[in-house]
Amino acid sequence: MFSITVSGLVFAIGWATTRHVRSLTVATLGCLFLGVALLDLGHTLSYQGMPDFITASGSEKAINFWLAARSLAVGGLLLAAFSRWHLGDTPRRYPLLIGVLLLVLLVHLVVLFHPQLLPRTFVEGQGLTGFKRAYEYALIVLCLLAAGVLLRRLRAPRRFNASALLAAALIMAMSEFFFTLYGNVTDVYNLLGHVYKVVAYGFLYWALFIDTVHQPYQALASSEHQLSATLAALPDLLFEMDTNGRYLAVHTPQHAGLAAPAETLVGRSVQEVMPPESAQICLEALRVAALMGHAQGQRISLPLPDGLRHFELSVARKEGEPGREPVLLVLSRDVTTLAEQQLALEQESRLNQILLGLPALADGLGEEDFLRHALPLVQHLNDSAWVCLRVYEAGQNVARLDLRSDAAPPDWEALAWTAQQTRQLQHSVPSRPPLLALPALEQGQVRLLLGVGRTQAAYGPRDLEGLRILAESLWRLAARRRQELRMRQQQQELDYFFNANRDLFAIWDRQGQLQRVNGALAQLLGLRAGELQGHSLQAHVHPEDRAATEAVLHTLGQDGEADFEHRCLAPDGSAHPVEWRVRVLDDLVYASGRDVGERRAQDAAIRTLSTALTQSPYAVVVTDAQGAIEYANPAFEAMTGYSEAEVMGSNPRLLQSGRTPASTYREMWDRLHAGEPWRGEFINRRKDGSEYTEEALIYPVREPSGRVVNYLAHKEDVSAKRAAVERIQQLSHFDQLTGLPNPALFAQRAQALLTPGHEPVTLIWLDLDNFKAINDSLGHTVGDLLLRETAHRLNGQLREHELLARQSGDAFTLLLPGCSADAAAAHARQLLAALEPPVPLQDQELVIGASLGLAQYPQDGQTLEALLMCAETAMYRVKQEGRNGFRFFDPGMQEHSARALALSASLRHALARQELTVVYQPQQDLHGGGLYGAEALLRWHSAQWGPVSPAEFIPLAESSGLIVPIGDWVLRTVVQQLAQWDAEGLPPLRVAVNLSAVQFAQPHLAQTVQRLLHESGLGPRRIELELTEAVALRDPEAARRTMEALSQAGMRLAIDDFGTGYSSMSYLKRFAVDLLKIDRSFVRELHSNPDDQAIATAIIQMARSLGLHTLAEGVETEAQREFLRARGCDAIQGYLYARPLSASAFADFVRTQPKLS
Q1: Which CDD domains match (predicted)?
Q2: What is the pLDDT of residues 349-359, one digit of tens each?
Q3: How many Å apart are CA 46 and CA 849, to the nearest integer?
Q4: Helices assigned H by DSSP within 501-579
C-alpha cells in the first residue's frame, strides 16, 4: 500500500505543477505513475487469500497486475532518462491522462476476463515460470539502461535532479532482481523486492519534488531579492496602479518627488493627490497603456514643497491572471530642468515670432482692430488665462480703449487704476491667482496698460521681461498705426473732396501748364485727369476768350486773387461757360470753378415750365413729401376758389367733402408709398361749399438718389362729364318705360349668382298674354301703361336679393337665388295672383294674364344664356297649353338643343369644306356721302342645314372653342382680299373685322395681325378691329395693354355695340380707341323714341369731346340718317345704304361710288 501511496504522490506532483513547470516529461511521468498506482492496487487486491476482485484471486492474477505496473514504472524511468526536460508551452494534460487510463482499463479487461491470452507466469507448486523470470530480467536491463543514460547526463549541465533518478533506476533494477528469486509470494526475496521498489519510488518522488517545487521556490526568492535591489537602485519613481488610477504599490526610497507620503498613497487615487489637469493626463496614460500595452511621453506638473515640478510618465501593462483587471506599472521621471529649459526656449521663440509678426498685423488693421487681434498673441505668450488692455490719451485718466478677453477678473478695474496711478508693475496678493499689470509709458505718462493673469503658476522674471517688451512694442506699433491712418484719412478726404466734387478744380503754374485737375474738369474737357497734366490751359479755352483770360492771369501778383469767366471747349466743339475763382500760392495758381451753362439752361427751362404751368387750363398742385402744398397754379384757384396764398402750406384734405370713399384714399397712398403713380376721382368741396367731381393724376417726384421729395397732382373738374356718363349709364342699363334693369344690367348682376358651388337659383321668364292684341287694338299708350303697371305689381312681389328686369317688349325675367322647386312654384303662383286684379283705365278695366317659364340652376343650365333659353322654352310651352300658368323646364322641350349639337359638329368641318364665306357691308360717310369703309361679316352655308344665322352659329363657335381658328381665318381672308382689290386697281379700302373675346385675349394678337399685313404688303390703317364693351371690360388692364400694342402698330380700334354695356368715360380715356359704334337697338326706334334719341345724342357728344369718331349700325330709314347727320355722327351702316355683299359684288359697288371718304 505504501508503494501505491508514493505512486499517487508522484502523480499528484506531476499533475499539480504542470501549469507552472510546463514540462511534457513531468506531465507524462505523473500520468504513468497514476497507472502504476492503479495496477499496484489491482495487484494488491488479487493476492491469494484476498477477497475475490471481480474474478477469483490468485498468485498468477496478482503477478500479471504486477508485471503491468512494473512495465509502466520502467517506461516512466526510460522517459525521464531520455527526455530533455525543457520548458515550453503548457502540455495538454487531459489527453495524456485519458490515454493512461485507457491503457490501465485494457490491462484490467485482459487480466480479469481474458487471462488465457497472457503467458503463464506462476504455476502452483512449481513457482515462477520462465517467462516471468525472463520478463523480470528484461525490466532489469531497461532499468540499467535508464541508469546508464542518467549517469552520462550527470556530467552535463541540466535543470532536473538526475542523481535521484539514477538512484531510483538502480534500486528498481535491484528490486526486479529479487523478484526473480522468490518461489513463494511470502518468502524473503519477495519482501526485499517490495522494499527496494518502495525505496526506488521514494527517490523518484524526491526527484520530481526537487524539480517542480523546491527549485521554483528558490528561484522566486532570488528574483524577489534581485527585484528589491533593482528598485532600490532606480533613480525614478515606480508605482503600481489599477486602471482607475488607484495606487496599489509604491516602489521608491525617494519621497521628495511624491505628491503625498508613500505610506498614505496606497489605496488612494490620483484625483485625490494631484491637481485635476495632471490627474487627467495620468488617467489618460493609464487608459492607453491598458489598451495598447504601454504609453510614454505624457508630462504632468505637480506643486511640491520645493516648487512646481515636472514629471514624464512611462506606463506599461503588467500581465496578470486571465480574467483579472490588469495592473499597470508607472515610471515617473523628474524632467523639471529639461521642462524649464524647453519653456524658456519656447517663450523666447513665441516672443520673437510675435514681435516679428506684429508689424505686418498692424499694417492691415486700424488701431483698435490691431490691439484686439494682439490679445490672443499676448495670452499665448505665457499661457495666460486672460488678457486685458487699455489705451489712454495723453494726460487723461479715462481709458480711450478698453479691450479684454473672456474670463477677465472683476477686480481688473481696481488693479488697472492702481497701475495707472503708480505707473509701475502691480502684483497680486497671495490669496489671489497670479496676475500682472504692465504700463507702457510715454514721456512719463501711462499710454497703454497690459494686464495678464493665470490660475496656477506665478509669473517669473522671464515672463515679466517678455510681457514688458511686448507691451512697449504694442504701444509703439499702435501709435504709429494710428498716426498713419490719420494721415491717410486726411489725404483720402482731400482727394475725395478734390475728385468727387461736382465743381471744377485745377492747379497750373505761371506758364499756364496744368499740373492737376479733378474728375469733373477732366470730364468736361473730354480727357482723363492724368492725360491733362502738362497741357496748356489756353488750349482748352475758347479762342475768343483767351486774351481776356491771359490778361486776368497776368494781373495776379505773388498772392493775388481774382474772379473771371471764360468758355471751355469740349471735344465735340461745344463751349461751356465756366466761372473761376483763382489764387496764387508759391508760383502755382489754385483755381475752383463751376460750369454755369447747365444752370443757366435749367433756369431758362424752369422759367418756361413755370409759364406753362401758370397758363395750363388744368389745375396743378405740388406738395412736399408730407403733403403740405408748395405750389398751386391759377387753374387750381379757378376750379376750387382758393388762391395759392390761401392753400400754401396746407394739406389738400381741406378740399374733402366727406363723400369720397376711404378706400380711395387708402389705394392712393398705397400706390404713392410704393413709388407708383395713381389716377382716380375725388368728390371735393369748393371754397363756396359746392361739390364737384375731380379727376386727379398724382405721382411722386424723386431726387436722383431715389428719395421722394414732392408729389405732383394734375386735376380736372369732370362733373359735367360725370353727369353725362351717369346719364348714359342710366339710359343704357335701365328700361326707360318701367324703370327696371334692362337685359345688359340683368346679365351683369346675374353673373355673380351663377358661379360654381353657389346656392341653387331659379330663373322665371314671364310673358304677358295677348299683349300684342292689346297694343294693336288700344294703342301703344295703353300698352305702355299696362307694362308700367305690370312692372309695379311684379316689383311688389320681390324679396330681398331677388332681381326683376324687363327683357324685351312684354317679356320680364326674375332671378330667385336660393329657391327650391316648391318655393319657386309658390312664388310663380304669387306672381300670377298679383296680375289677376283688373287694370283700371279711363272708362274700362283691363284683365291680363301671363305665362311663366321656370328654369333652375345648375341642373337646367350653367350659364345665364342657357337658363334664359330653357325658361323661354318652358314659357312657350305654357302658351301652347292655354296661357296664364307656369311650367318648369323639361329637357324634352328643348328640341333645338339637338340642332345645336348637330350644328356644332358640322361647324368643326365647315372650314375644311369651304362652307364659310366673308361678305362685306359698305359704310357711308355722313359728311361727304361717299364710301367710309366696310365691315367684314361671316356667313355659313351648310351643305346639311343650308344657310345658318350668325346669331346661331357664332355662340356655338365660342362655346366649342372654334372661334379662334375661325377668327384667324376671317382675318387672313380679309387681308388677302384687300391685297387682291389693290391689285385690281380699287382705291385703298378700310375693312372692320370683329374680334371675339377669346381672340382678343390671345397673347400675341398684335404681332399676328402685323405679320399678316406685312406678308400682304398692306398698311396697318387698312384694318379696323372691333370689340364689344364686355370684352374690353372683362380685364381692363389687360385690354388696355393689348389696345396700346395694336394702336402703336398703327391699327384702328372700334368699340362695337356701344351703349349696351358699362359705357364708362374713364375706360374710354384709358383705351386707345378710334371709333364708337352706336348699337342698332338705339337706332331702331330713333325717329319715335325720345330715350333712344337722348342716348344716341349723348354718345355722339361724348365721343366728340374725347376726339373719337362715331358710326351708327342698323340704319334703315332716311329719317334715321338725317337725325344722325344732324347730331354730328360720322358714318352709318345698314340696309338704307347697302346690304352685305360678296367680294366681287362689293368691288363692283366700290367702282360705282363717286368718291372714297
Answers
A1: EAL (cd01948), GGDEF (cd01949), PAS (cd00130)
A2: 777 777 777 77
A3: 150
A4: 519-525, 529-532, 546-554
pLDDT value at position 432? Answer: 45
Q: Are 924 and 1132 in contact (CB under 8 A)?
A: yes
If you search the block for the grid coordinates 363657335, which residue do you land on? Answer: 957
User: Alpha-carbon distance 245 to 270, whole Å?
Assistant: 6
Q: State which amino acid sits at residue 1052.
A: R
Closest CA to 681 of 1106, 1035, 691, 1036: 691
Contacts of 579-584 with CB under 8 Å at 24 or more apart are: 580/504, 582/553, 582/556, 583/559, 584/556, 584/557, 584/558, 584/559, 584/560
Q: Are strands 678-685 and 561-569 parallel, antiparallel or unpaired?
A: unpaired
DSSP alpha helix (H) spans, 431-540: 461-500, 519-525, 529-532
Q: Are residues 577 and 595 in contact, defined by beta-carbon separation less than 8 angstroms?
A: yes
Q: Cell numbers 515462477 label which residue?
A: 128
Q: Count the neighbouring beta carbons within 10 Å of the beta carbon of residue 490.
A: 10
Which of residues 767 and 1036 earns the better pLDDT score? Answer: 767
What single string gives the DSSP state of each residue in 817-850?
Answer: ET--HHHHHHHHHHHHHHH-S-EE-SS-EE---E
State residue 656 phi and psi, 5-degree precision.
-65, 140
DSSP-assigned letter for residue 269: B
Which residue type does 770 have? N
Dihedral (CA of 947, 948, 950, 954) sign = negative
CA 831 to chain centre: 65
Residue 561: half-sphere exposure toward Cβ, Cα within 13 Å: 2
Confidence of residue 445 (pLDDT cuts 50, 70, 90): confident
Cα–Cα distance for residue pair 81/1152, rounded to 1 Å = 156
How many Å is the Cα radius of gyration of the chain? 65
CA dihedral sign, ordered 465, 468, 474, 480: negative
Place 27 in a pLDDT band, splitting at 50, 70 and 90: low
β-partners of residue 692 are 684
Evaluate the CA torsion angle 789, 794, 797, 798 in order and state its sign: negative
Residue 1038 CA to residue 1044 CA, distance in Å, equals: 10
Average pLDDT over residues 1065-1090: 84
Domains of the chain: 2-218 (1.20.1070), 235-334 (3.30.450.20), 341-489 (3.30.450.40), 501-599 (3.30.450.20), 617-717 (3.30.450.20), 726-893 (3.30.70.270), 954-1139 (3.20.20.450)
Map residue 735 onto helix, strand or coil. Answer: coil
Question: If 0-12 CB within 10 Å is exposed, 13-18 middle and 19+ buried, where does residue 278 land?
Answer: buried
Under the banding of pLDDT at 50, 70 and 90, the label for residue 830 is very high
Give strand pairing partners of 472: none
Region of poorest pLDDT, from 147-161, 167-181, 307-321: 147-161
- 1003/1100: higher pLDDT: 1100
d(CA 149, CA 160): 14
pLDDT at 422: 52
Q: Give the range with max mean pLDDT: 128-132, 774-778, 1097-1101.
A: 1097-1101
Place of cell 323661354: 872
The phi-psi region of residue 267 (left if phi > 0; otherwise alpha if psi is between -120 and 50; otherwise beta) is: left
User: Strand, coil or helix: what is 791?
Assistant: helix
User: Within the chain, what is the greatest distance between any pair of CA atoms?
Assistant: 186
DSSP 912-931: TTT-EEEEEEEEEETTTSSE
- pLDDT level of residue 212 (50, 70, 90 thresholds): low
Residue 430 has pLDDT above 50, yes or no: no
Task: Identify which of 887, 890, 807 has the alpha carbon closest to the alpha carbon of residue 852.
Answer: 887
DSSP letter at 543 equals: G
Q: Where are the alpha helices (DSSP H) in 243-331?
A: 262-265, 270-273, 276-292
